[in-house]
Structure formats: C-alpha cells, structure tokens
C-alpha cells in the first residue's frame, strides 16, 4: 500500500526524480545548449518529498554508474541519439529492454538513468530540443507503466532498502566508495524511518 494518503505523492516524486536524474546527468555535459526543464513536470510540495527525491537520485546515480559499462545499453542509447527519425519508438525499445524481465526498483532506477544518458547524447548531438522530449517520454512511460506498480509496492518510500542493496552487490569498491554506500544506505533507512514516524503522528 502506498503512502499517498499522507500528503506524499508517488506521482510527484516520480516526475521530480526523473527531472532530477536528467538534470544531474546534464551537469556533466559541456554545452550551453541545455534547455530548462522546470515547467515540464510537477514539482514536489513538501520537504519530505524533496528529501525522498534527493536520496533516490543519489542511489540511482550509484546504480547507473554500475550499468555504465554495459555495452548493450550504451549501444541502445547511442542508437536512439544517432537516428533523429522515430526517436519515440527507439526510446520505447530501450525502455522495454530495461524492463523485459519484469519491473523492479533497480530496473526503474536504470530506466531513469538511461533517460539521463539519452539527454546527454542529444545535447552532444546538438539536438537540445530532444532533451525536453526525453523528459516528457520518460514521465509518460512512468505514469503509464510504472506508477501503478510503485503504488502496489508501497510507494517510493519502500524503495530505499532495495535500491541500497541493489547498488551494493557485485561491485568492486574502494574503501571510500564502500563508506559512501554505507552512508547512503543508512541515510535511506533513516529517511524512511523519519517519514514513517512523521506520517503516523
């Protein structure tokens, strides 16, 4: 059961999270052509929602960095960015590939990360108007295909422990990275506990 009845909206959090992940990836892009994304999505309405979005975006970055070396994903991202025709169909194929074995918190994180990487590719290809399209396509895909699943699985608040665990295994980490992961995991649990406590008051 979702926590939407307590002033926290899984839909708002999802939209803001997609925007945050794309903007974070675009910060690494060296270009003046990055379009503003602000009016395109619903903004979070509370400090609790903002904390959830910030924490989740950090976890998605960790998971995304792990997928970064996957050649199949990189080829799919490059294929969408290089072909200006039927970008939506290619984006849908990439989305379907990410979720072909079912929806999980980790695969949702990977999909959002892929959207951010696609945005960077479009900026690098001098197609900045496509960044807004990627945002809208990802938000639309999220609402149509993922939001129901997220609500059925307790809302974004229930994603913290699974995303923290998903980012931990099979990674060869240096000590500083392990410490960072432990901090994210602990912060996620603390944030989840805080929000649950706040909602029960």
UniProtKB/TrEMBL annotation:
Domain Bcl-2 Bcl-2 homology region 1-3 residues, every copy: 60-156
Transmembrane intervals: 179-197
GO-annotated cellular components: mitochondrial outer membrane
UniProt cross-references to Gene3D superfamilies, sorted A to Z: Blc2-like
Keywords: Apoptosis, Membrane, Transmembrane, Transmembrane helix
GO MF terms, alphabetically ordered: BH domain binding; channel activity
GO terms of biological process kind: extrinsic apoptotic signaling pathway in absence of ligand; intrinsic apoptotic signaling pathway in response to DNA damage; mitochondrial fusion; regulation of apoptotic process; release of cytochrome c from mitochondria
PANTHER family: APOPTOSIS REGULATOR BAX, BCL-2 RELATED
Family: Belongs to the Bcl-2 family.
Name the UniProt record assigns to this protein: Apoptosis regulator BAX-like
UniProt organism field: Echeneis naucrates
Gene field: LOC115047450
């Amino acid at each position: 059961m979702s926590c939407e009845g307590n002033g926290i909206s899984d839909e708002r959090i999802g939209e803001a999270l997609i925007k945050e992940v794309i903007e974070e990836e675009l910060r690494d892009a060296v270009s003046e052509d990055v379009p503003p994304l602000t009016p395109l999505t619903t903004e979070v309405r509370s400090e609790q929602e903002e904390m959830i979005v910030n924490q989740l975006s950090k976890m998605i970055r960790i998971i995304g960095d792990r997928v970064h070396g996957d050649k199949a994903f990189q080829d799919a991202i490059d294929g969408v960015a290089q072909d200006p025709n039927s970008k939506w169909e290619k984006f849908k194929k990439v989305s379907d590939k990410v979720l072909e074995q079912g929806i999980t918190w980790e695969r949702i994180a990977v999909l959002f990360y892929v959207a951010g990487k696609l945005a960077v590719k479009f900026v690098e290809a001098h197609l900045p108007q496509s960044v807004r399209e990627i945002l809208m396509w990802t938000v639309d895909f999220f609402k149509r295909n993922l939001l129901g699943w997220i609500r059925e699985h307790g809302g974004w608040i229930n994603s913290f422990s699974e995303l923290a665990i998903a980012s931990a295994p099979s990674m060869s980490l240096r000590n500083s990275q392990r410490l960072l992961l432990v901090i994210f995991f602990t912060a996620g649990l603390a944030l989840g506990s805080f929000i649950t406590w706040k909602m029960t008051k």
